[in-house]
TrEMBL record:
It is found in: Endomembrane system; Membrane. Its main location: membrane. The lineage of its organism: Bacteria, Pseudomonadati, Bacteroidota, Chitinophagia, Chitinophagales. One of its GO terms (cellular component) is endomembrane system. Residues 134-428 form the NADH:quinone oxidoreductase/Mrp antiporter transmembrane domain. Keywords: Membrane, Transmembrane, Transmembrane helix. The chain crosses the membrane at residues 6-26, 35-53, 73-104, 116-134, 140-158, 170-190, 221-241, 253-274, 286-305, 312-331, 343-360, 381-398, 418-435, 462-479. Belongs to the complex I subunit 4 family. GO terms for biological process: ATP synthesis coupled electron transport; electron transport coupled proton transport. This is NADH-quinone oxidoreductase subunit M. GO terms for molecular function: NADH dehydrogenase (ubiquinone) activity; NADH dehydrogenase activity; ubiquinone binding. It is a multi-pass membrane protein. The keyword Oxidoreductase does not apply.
Length: 497
């Protein structure tokens, strides 16, 4: 049946999509939370199973398990085509792995209109997954927008006092840049070869790779696509929506935004930008890397002077995304392998930080560092978990962050050693603000805000144990993920060169 009646990408899409729609009609909040968690676990089960069928190079029969195309709009050359390659397997697994963690970590959090909240969360999961599996440009754009719409409502309806204002800014940034990308998609489509006799052009991914574009056309179209991806990540100077939105949104929404949704921008660059516009990438890659390095140092420096836990994590994320952007445009095997690995590692590590911030905020009611202290005495288990997570974020050896950042810095050094040297300064700055945050929040004497803080629950220990175990395993042995994505890296470099 598998590969004949249903495929892995279809299941990864339809399970959260249909469950999310069903949740809108369930009023009991406990049932809603349980169904959402079970749906995410079922999706995770499908994703894990798909990994056992990912070696298509040695088992061609697995291709039909992970790729499917349905007739959609044949007269304009568009089909509902979805599929998984190494990068797709990695990012759909990241999405499927993190949603159960997010639901479990925030299970006791109460929301107004719980059914709507969790329904929108699952629709967001479906939209993000659709971006990662689309092999048709029109389908890709459809899911790109689908992921934005529920996230807009999640951030604007549940969050802080200024949530509507900052969410509107986020929507304007992403929607306008997406429209620019749509213009670019249509232009490239008009320069693609047909794949059937029913249409003169095609939206199929391979047709976009084979589009006949002059160097001048590539140079203009590059920016239409780049802006959409750069805003979503975000890369400096298109980042201004991010810190405020992260601060004002609910913690579970922020986990999805920072841990998974930003990967859509990086994925877009790897899947669409580099292979379609190789000449333009060669022309602008140094300029883009300079902006990324500025973003790395700027984000790290701003994080160093923040006093709010959420804003520190937000600015830290900007610095990490800047490094991934620089590694993408270094465009060599080492840097791209580092990016592939870091997309997964950053997703795990940043969500782990948000979970700890959520626990602290729930227990104390505050996020200001100067008003915290002594939590290691009151909750030693939380302090141990947080220390390991902090060490992973500053890329200490034997943590998952080390392997991916080492590869990215090495690849950047291969491209330009001077830009790499400037980027390496962020290692010192990030270690300073992360360890400073650890010291001020967890050490010292408990005060009036932290005196009554108790130990974390067994469920919280279980969730954080899964994350820490993942951090350590991938820090010691990242080989399986590197092997999984090597084929995607090779294909990207063949198109780029």
């Amino acid at each position: 049946m598998l590969g004949t009646y249903y495929t892995f990408p279809e299941l990864l899409l339809w399970i959260p999509l249909l469950t999310g729609i069903i949740l809108f009609f369930i009023k009991n909040s406990k049932v809603v939370k349980t169904v959402a968690l079970l749906s995410s676990l079922l999706t995770l089960g499908v994703s894990v199973t798909s990994l056992f069928y990912s070696d298509i190079a040695h088992h061609p029969e697995y291709f039909n398990y992970s790729n499917v195309s349905y007739v959609w709009m044949p007269y304009i050359g568009s089909s509902f085509s979805v599929g998984l390659d190494g990068m797709g397997f990695l990012l759909t697994f990241l999405t499927a792995f993190t949603f159960p963690l997010i639901f479990a970590a925030t299970h006791k959090r109460e929301y107004a209109n719980t059914n709507v909240y969790y329904g929108l969360m699952l629709l967001t999961q479906a939209g993000i997954t659709g971006v990662f599996v689309a092999t048709d440009a029109l389908v890709f754009y459809f899911f790109w927008e689908l992921a934005l719409i529920p996230m807009y409502f999640l951030c604007s309806r549940w969050g802080g006092e200024f949530r509507i204002r900052v969410t509107f800014k986020f929507f304007v940034y992403t929607f306008v840049s997406s429209l620019l990308m749509l213009i670019g998609v249509i232009y490239v489509y008009l320069h693609t070869p047909p794949v059937s006799t029913l249409s003169d052009h095609s939206f199929y991914l391979r047709s976009f790779y084979n589009a006949t574009l002059t160097r001048g056309e590539q140079n203009g179209l590059f920016w239409l696509f780049f802006l959409a991806f750069a805003v979503k990540m975000p890369i400096f100077p298109f980042h201004s929506w991010q810190p405020d939105l992260y601060e004002q949104s609910s913690n579970s929404s922020v986990m999805v935004l920072s841990g998974i949704m930003v990967k859509m921008g990086i994925f877009g660059m790897l899947r669409w930008l580099l292979p379609i516009f190789p000449d333009a990438v060669g022309s602008y890659q140094t300029l883009v890397i300079i902006f990324c390095v500025i973003g790395i140092l700027y984000g790290s420096s701003i994080a160093f002077v923040q006093s709010d836990l959420k804003r520190i994590v937000a600015w830290s994320s900007i610095a990490h995304i800047g490094l991934m952007g620089a590694a993408v445009f270094s465009a060599n095997n080492t840097s791209l392998q580092g990016v592939m690995l870091e997309m997964f590692n950053h997703g795990i590590n940043i969500i782990a930080l948000w979970i700890v911030v959520d626990i602290i905020e729930k227990k104390t009611g505050i996020r200001k560092i100067s008003e915290l202290g002594g939590l290691a005495i009151k909750s030693p288990a939380l302090s141990i978990f947080f220390l390991i997570i902090v060490l992973a974020n500053i890329a200490l050896p034997l943590t998952n962050g080390f392997a991916s950042e080492f590869l990215m810095f090495t690849g950047l050094f291969e491209y330009n050693k001077y830009l790499a040297a400037f980027a390496c300064l962020s290692i010192i700055i990030s270690a300073a603000y992360m360890l400073n945050m650890m010291q001020k929040v967890f050490f010292g004497v408990p005060n009036t805000f932290t005196e009554n803080v108790g130990a974390i629950t067994m469920s919280q220990k279980f969730i954080l144990s899964i994350i820490v175990l993942t951090i350590v395993i991938l820090g010691i042995y990242p080989g399986p993920l590197l092997h999984l994505t090597q084929g995607s890296v090779t294909e990207i470099l063949q198109k780029f060169k």
